[in-house]
Specification:
Blueprint: H1 2-5, H2 19-25, E1 35-38, E2 41-44, H3 46-56, H4 67-98, H5 103-106, H6 116-121, H7 124-133, H8 138-161, H9 171-183, H10 197-205, H11 219-222
Antiparallel strand pairs: 1-2
Helix pairs in contact: 4-7, 4-8, 4-9, 9-10
Length: about 220
Amino acid sequence: MLERKGVEVRRIDLVAAVHRLVVRAAGFPGITVPAVRLEGVRLQGTGRIARALDALVPEPRLVPADAAARAEVERAEGWADEVYQAAARRLAWATIKRDRSSVGSFLEGARLGIPTGLAARTAAPVIFLSARLNRANDAAVRRDLAALPGWLDRIDGWLAEGVLGGREPNVADYQVATSTRLLMAMDDVRPSIEDRPAGRHALRLVPTFPGRVPPVLPQSWLR
């Protein structure tokens, strides 16, 4: 969204789980990322950042000015933030935990302040803690996998209706596409996503994305 608005920033990547302490130490009120210091104001979360960007750089808009269109976009944004994003994170940590060697692929191009090779070699505690904090247990992962086809149908429907996928991406586009792209980093589920409208939408908005986890989940869960 910052790139789309032409706003230059200095990006700092944080170690997962540890980021909760770092953002608080940096003066942010919450523990979540993305976190941005914009024009002296500390903002957290895609939604708040999008609205601040619209105030700073009015065009192209991330939140529609039309009330009816805005309501539809905000409905999709809220679902993606509260449901879809959490599931993508659970599945990511659950699969990385099963193949810890894959964590290095997610660190390509990272700006951590330490060598990425060192970060990958010492990642076991971070992976374990992140999986626990995101409740990436077997039961939750199986529920997410069962729900995934319906979620993709929902996204495809929003794309068909024009809520998502317009000429100018909106805040819901970015909220949805980034989570879809994270799911596509997992070989277990990528084949069921990439040829759908939801998959093409994610690739259009996020053409490059680090990370890949080979197949690690039981086939019985994927059926």
